[in-house]
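Appendix B. One record, verbatim.
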Amino acid sequence: MIILVTGANGYLGQGIVKHLLDNGNKVVAADVTVDRIDGRAIKRPCDLFKVPDPYTYFGEPDVLLHLAWRDGFVHYSDSHIDDLPKHYAFIKSFAESDVKAIAVMGSMHEIGFYEGSIKEDTPCRPTTPYGISKNALRDLTEMFCKQKNKTFLWLRGYYIVGNSQYGSSIFSKITAAETEEREEFPFTMGQNQFDFIDYEDFCEQVARAVSQNWITGVINICSGRPEKLADRVERFIKENGYNIKLKYGAFPDRPYDSKAVWGDGDKIEHIMGLSAKDVIKVHDQDH
């Protein structure tokens, strides 16, 4: 399949593009800059929102995988609200094209404060501009796909563990602090429990999800189990051989973070269990 990946030069995009290519897909990779993208991809440096007729410009892809999003780790940034109409118009243009499937990267922050296992139909009550905007785009994308008979995939991401210098998660920040040879890293008490998934596993789950059309709708990209933040961060420090120590209690917990929340992994487990023969069959049906 030909898969257009937007935001391909970002922290998530780099790994997802690589996994899509490794799985035998042809990838058109779009972003403002393209210097960190796998060389096997077709690179398209551009401002997505200024491209006329994006479906044609990007080579008439079979699937749109829309990762592009500003300030994903700054949950109260005004950019989430400012950019929403641009995302709306971009996705609408693909819904009106001959693309077969539209997949968009979501976030567990669409749910808002919640405790327990998040399922695809768990009610969404977001409390930040980031969560509100993502949730609105989810509803709009699903509406377009129903109207235009497109396959709809909403990939709801959870807490990604990786030491890339390009990320903005706590794990990337700890890596940066270790590189700077800092002795301590200011931390909360770390008692909240979240769904942590390793970066490579996350990228492979996304790649596999968008390469099939049997299991659709909201799909949790997750490990399917909770773990205390302190335990996962301490394990991350040990796994990477870092010397830095956590300074517990330096920061309070964020008021909108749940005490224990994780994704229901039923759908993604079924997708990951598809055999190579199944995936080829899906490709044949699409063409």
